[in-house]
Design brief:
The protein is α/β, with parallel strands linked by helices. The chain has a single domain, classed as Alpha-Beta Complex (Spore Coat Polysaccharide Biosynthesis Protein SpsA, Chain A). Helix content is 34%, strand content 12%. The strands form 2 sheets. Strands 3-2-1-4-6 form a 5-stranded mixed sheet, with helices on both faces. Strands 5-8-7 form a 3-stranded mixed sheet.
Length: 289
């Protein structure tokens, strides 16, 4: 399968200027790009005409109103996978619209050609209360980002614990970064589990980091996980300086040397409202290459 095309799946919701730069950096005859633009976004796909010359660019319809950590995020990811899978791409790379590549496409494709058949997930150790995400229903499944709704969710889950109303007792769950690079066979397998995913995770919250690793790790694909050292989904995310436990560091101009020295292929996150200079410099650097 050497040299086959890749599909980029992008969850976008803000910052149209930097999203355009991301699309142009991914624009390559070896890539096609599938974008889900949040229904809440205040811009439309019409503003991106002509930004890709070598890649097919597909905007997912209908647009979903995505809530942070809500089941709607799972729905948007599956919608992109469903749209892309007829192309039978060698790899499917999930990115946020706030991500950027930090390596050129030749480097990225050469690596995946060498590791064809391996799956790239960054599995995490569960925090003490991670199990509440999948063993108990949420009163407001789309409300994790809203303090009062989140508080109500925690109280509701506490009541379920007190009365022994646990759900999903018969599954071994796994926890990983949302962002992945997976083979065609693996994503086809995930799509075949859509009914199970809906039954298991509908009504829960904060399970976007759980549904794919759980499907993969309870399948034969668990034996194909990339075994390299470091971050195994090849995305550089700086949690050590994050603004909160929920949000990683936003890269700035002073991070240039750090970004150039990372062995990984993509980094998140960037925000043109915080520092546009680092985005422009990275864009110019990669476009020149």
């Amino acid at each position: 399968m050497e040299g086959q095309k890749h599909a980029y799946l992008i969850l976008a919701h803000a910052c149209p200027g930097q999203l355009r730069k991301l699309l142009m950096l991914l624009d390559d005859p070896r890539n096609d790009i599938f974008v889900h633009l949040d229904a809440k976004a205040d811009f439309s796909p019409a503003g991106f005409d002509g930004c890709c010359r070598d890649s097919a660019l597909c905007w997912i319809e209908p647009r979903i109103r995505v809530a942070w950590a809500g089941y709607s995020m799972i729905e948007a990811i599956l919608a992109m996978v469903r749209a892309a899978v007829p192309g039978k791409y060698a790899y499917y790379h999930l990115l946020s619209g706030m991500d950027l590549p930090v390596k050129d496409q030749d480097t990225i494709h050469a690596f995946f050609d060498r590791h064809q058949g391996e799956e790239f997930l960054d599995l995490w150790n569960e925090a003490p209360h991670t199990h509440t995400r999948y063993h108990y229903k949420a009163l407001f499944p789309e409300g994790a980002a809203h303090p009062l709704q989140n508080l109500a969710n925690n109280i509701y889950k506490g009541l379920q614990m007190a009365f022994g109303r646990q759900i999903n007792r018969d599954t071994k769950f796994y926890f990983a970064s949302t962002w992945f690079s997976l083979t065609n066979d693996c994503v086809e397998y995930i799509l075949a589990q859509e009914a199970w995913i809906e039954k298991t995770f509908m009504g829960t919250n904060s399970t976007d980091e759980i549904f794919i690793p759980t499907v993969v790790m309870n399948s034969p694909f668990k034996d194909h996980l990339y075994a390299g050292e470091g971050i195994r989904n090849l995305r550089f995310i700086d949690w050590s300086r994050g603004e909160s436990v929920r949000h990683p560091w936003t890269f700035r101009a002073g991070d240039w040397d750090l970004l150039m020295s990372t062995p990984y292929f993509w980094a998140r996150k960037f925000d043109e409202r915080v520092d546009a200079d680092i985005i422009d410099r990275l864009y110019d650097h990669l476009r020149t290459r």
